[in-house]
Amino acid sequence: MEIAVIGGGSIGLLFSYYLGRKNRVTVYTRTEGQSEAIRANGIHLLKKGCDFRAGVNAAPLEKWTGREELTILAVKQYQLQSVLNSVAERMPGDASLMFLQNGMGHVKWLSELPVKNIYIGSVEHGAMAIGDHSVSHNGIGVTRVAVYKGEAGPIKHFTEMELVDFPVEMADDFRSVLIGKLVVNAVINPLTAAFQVRNGELLDNPFFYEIFKDLFSEVAMALRLEDKEKHFANIVSVCRKTSANSSSMLKDIEAGRQTEIDGILGYILEEAEGQNIDTPIIRTYFRHIKGKEFQRGASI
Ligand SMILES: NC(=O)C1=CN([C@@H]2O[C@H](COP(=O)(O)OP(=O)(O)OC[C@H]3O[C@@H](n4cnc5c(N)ncnc54)[C@H](OP(=O)(O)O)[C@@H]3O)[C@@H](O)[C@H]2O)C=CC1
Ligand SMILES: CC(C)(CO)C(=O)C(=O)O
C-alpha cells in the first residue's frame, strides 16, 4: 500500500518506521533538509536498547499531491489548519485522510473537508523524535482507528498488518475513540506538564495520584462518562505502559512550544460550562498550562 505521512515528528516518524516495513511510505516534512536526511539514512527506531532501520521516501510538503492511497496527518492539532490550508488546492476529491491528533478541538473542521474518506485515529504509544530521522519508542500502546466519513476499505489493511509492537484495532464509533483518548490526555498530559514528571510518576507518587483521581472525577462529570471505572482503568493502564515517557504536553512545555491544552482541557471546560457544571480543578490546570505557555513566550 502507498501511504503518505505528513509531519516528521515523534508520531510521524514512529508510524513511518512501522508502516515502512510493509508498505511504500513517503514522509512529507516541513523542510527539504529533513527529507534529505530521511532519504539518506532511513528512519531509525530506538527500542529496548536496539536500533532498527526502515527505508522510506521523503519530500517536503509542497510535493504532496494526495496520490497515495492513504494520507496520515501526524502534526500537532494547532498545526493542522495551516497544513490543510497549504494543501487545499491540491487535495484530490477521492483522497483518504487519517487524523491522529490528541484532543477534540479539530473535529469540528473535518466535516467541511471535501474528500471522500476521513478516518480518526487515537494513538496510545509513547514516542520521542531524536533529530531528523530517529525516534525512540518509549511506550507500546494500541492505535484505534474509526471511520469519520466514507468507506472503511483503505484502512482495513491497517488492522490486518500485524506488525510487532504496533497493534492497530478497528473501532465502530469515532466519538468513543476520541473520547477515550481525550480522557487519557486530559488527566496525564496537564499533570505531567504541571509537575514536570514522566507519566509513571503520576501513579507512583501517592500525592500526585490523589490529584490524578480528583481531576479524573471532574473530567468524568463534565463529559458525562457512563462507564467511569472502565475509563479510569484505561488511564491507569496507559500511564503504566508509557511510564518512562514524557507526555507530549510536558515535552512542549520544556521546549517552550505551544501545547494542545485548548483542544483537551479547553474543550472539556467548554462542555462543562455549557451544562453549568463547575469544574475548578480542570479550570486550575487549564490556567496553569496556559500560564506556563505565556511564561515561556509560546504563541497563545
Ligand atoms: N509524541 C507522543 O508520544 C504522542 C503524540 N500524540 C499526538 O500526535 C500528534 C503529533 O504529535 P508529535 O508527533 O508528538 O508532535 P511533533 O511536534 O513531534 O511533530 C509534529 C511534526 O509536524 C511537523 N509539521 C508541523 N507543521 C508542518 C507543516 N506545515 N508541514 C510539514 N510538517 C509540519 C513538525 O515539523 P517542524 O518540527 O519542522 O515544525 C513536526 O515534525 C499530536 O496531536 C500529539 O498529541 C499522541 C500520542 C502520543
Ligand atoms: C499516551 C500519551 C499520554 C503518552 O505520553 C499521549 O498521548 C501524549 O503524551 O500525548
Automatic annotation (TrEMBL):
Q: Does the keyword Iron apply?
A: no
Gene Ontology molecular function: any one: NADP binding
Q: Which GO terms describe its biological process?
A: pantothenate biosynthetic process
Q: Which GO terms describe its cellular component?
A: cytoplasm
Alphabetical UniProt keywords: NADP, Oxidoreductase, Pantothenate biosynthesis
**One matching Pfam family:** ApbA
- Biological pathway: Cofactor biosynthesis; (R)-pantothenate biosynthesis; (R)-pantoate from 3-methyl-2-oxobutanoate: step 2/2
Chemical reaction(s) catalysed = (R)-pantoate + NADP(+) = 2-dehydropantoate + NADPH + H(+)
Q: What is its EC number?
A: 1.1.1.169
Task: Name the InterPro entries on file.
Answer: 6-PGluconate_DH-like_C_sf, 6PGD_dom2, ApbA, Ketopantoate_reductase, KPA_reductase, KPR_N, NAD(P)-bd_dom_sf
Q: Which residues form the Ketopantoate reductase C-terminal domain?
A: 174-293
Query: Which residues belong to any copy of the Ketopantoate reductase N-terminal domain?
Result: 3-148
**Function field:** Catalyzes the NADPH-dependent reduction of ketopantoate into pantoic acid.
**NCBIfam families noted in UniProt:** apbA_panE (TIGR00745), PRK06522.2-4 (NF005093)
Q: Which family does it belong to?
A: Belongs to the ketopantoate reductase family.
Question: What name has this protein been given in UniProt?
Answer: 2-dehydropantoate 2-reductase
